[in-house]
Amino acid sequence: MKGKKIEWSKFGIYLVAVFMFIACIFLSPNFLTRVNLTNILKQMSVILMAAFGETLLITMGGIDLAVGAEMALSGIISIYVYYATHSLVLSLLAGIAMGAVCGAALGTIVTKLHVPPFIAGLAVMEICRGSVYLLTGGYSLYKLGDFVFFGQSTIFRVIPMPAVFAAVIAVLSYILLNHTRQGRYIYAIGGNAKAAEASGIKTDSVILKTYIFSSMIMGLAGVVLMARMNSGNPDAGSGYEFQAITAAVIGGTSMLGGVGTIQGTVIGGLIVGMLQNIMNLNSIQPFVQQIVKGIIILLAVVYDLNSSRIHKQKKASMPKE
After folding, report:
1. How far is the C-alpha of 25 from the C-alpha of 29, rounded, in Å?
2. Rounded CA gap, 26 and 267, in Å?
3. How far is Cα 11 from Cα 34, in angstroms, rounded to an integer?
4. Are the beta carbons of 13 and 264 closer than 8 angstroms?
5. Contact, 129 vs 254, CB < 8 A?
6. pTM for this entry
7. SS3 of 232, please?
8. Tens of pLDDT along 235-292?
9. pLDDT value of residue 309
10. Digit-coded pLDDT (tens) for 123-138
11. What SS3 class is residue 141?
12. Does residue 66 contact residue 241 with C-beta atoms inside 8 Å?
């Protein structure tokens, strides 16, 4: 009786993460310190939250290029509500609600106007970023007071609050994708939207709900980002969409749709975070870091496309019973 073959490709992302962790230890003596590891958690928590939202969308066959702008708008709205009410709860809910509005707009543009997700995301990105500048006049907001609780406080003096939010979103996204009807529909639409619709799935409704949920995550991420920076910067979140997409794709989410896991995105996000952190510790110029990130995005997408092509070829060559 032949034993089962070990599919090493399933473990590749974990091996890469372990290898990078070990490499970072040797590349900088400051890497394996509590302060630095805490900083990585703080920095990556926002990107991870955004990456969870992108994982849901990309698995469904969509994408959101307005991530950074949605975060900025949600964060600014949240700060203004805090100024008016001095209520942490209301300000948090306001940020999440603003994200929901952005998601509803995106989902409606995609489903009702039949605009490709890529173009819809670019349009909403410009609208959101323009709204941020209109609201702030291009100036940063300061004197946030207790609002910084969302980004700078800790649990048991060890666990950063941003990491707590990221963990909660990870659990909720995992449950949604793996243990709900909505999650099954997301995979089905990403695999073959026409077949999913033909089987009775209300694809427009699923797409709209997924965009809203994803953008609610972006709204929360925007609140946490502003609180962590202790300022309402109108430029906040710029480029986060690409980091989120990178984390998702490195974690195994297919740009062709139908394939994606939250646990894979967590590992992908940690890889991105460790890479960025070690470059900072070794004083790599920001412009060089941008080049490296661009190359990583390209390699991740090329690998994903090639893997998908090979998988389809193997599937097509299998003898039918």
Report:
1. 6
2. 20
3. 28
4. yes
5. no
6. 0.90
7. strand
8. 999 889 988 999 999 888 988 899 899 999 999 999 988 998 999 999 888 888 888 8
9. 61
10. 999 999 999 999 999 9
11. strand
12. yes
Helices within 230-285 (DSSP H only): 240-250, 262-281
Question: Which single residue is written with the structure tokens 């707009």?
Answer: 105
Nearest to 283 by CA among 46, 22, 18, 30: 30
**Residue 196 and residue 232: Cα distance in Å, rounded?**
42
**Dihedral angle computed from the Cα positions of residues 77, 79, 85 and 89, in that order, rounded to the nearest 10 degrees:** 90
Reading the block at residue 42, the tokens are 């703080």
Taking a C-beta distance cutoff of 8 angstroms, is the pair 243, 64 a contact?
no
- From CA 177, how far away is CA 171, in angstroms rounded? 10
Q: How far, in whole angstroms, is CA 51 from its chain's centroid?
A: 2
Burial of 288 (C-beta count, 10 Å sphere; 0-12/13-18/19+): exposed
Q: Are 78 and 91 in contact (CB under 8 A)?
A: yes
Average pLDDT, integer, range 11-15? 79
> If you search the block for the tokens 């958690």, which residue do you land on?
41
Whole-Å CA distances, 26 to 16, 20, 284: 16, 10, 16
Q: What is the mean pLDDT of the chain?
A: 89
Higher pLDDT, 1 or 10: 10
- The closest of 48, 235, 223 to 40, measured between CA atoms, is 48
Burial of residue 248 (CB within 10 Å: 0-12, 13-18, 19+) is buried
* Residue 148: φ, ψ to 5°: -65, -10
Environment class of 134 (CB within 10 Å of its CB; exposed 0-12, middle 13-18, buried 19+): exposed
Residue 160 DSSP code: E
CB atoms within 10 A of CB 187: 17
Express as a percent the part of the chain with pLDDT over 90: 67
pLDDT tens by residue, 107-116? 999 999 999 9
pLDDT in tens, 34-50: 889 888 888 899 999 99
Above 80 in pLDDT, residue 65? yes
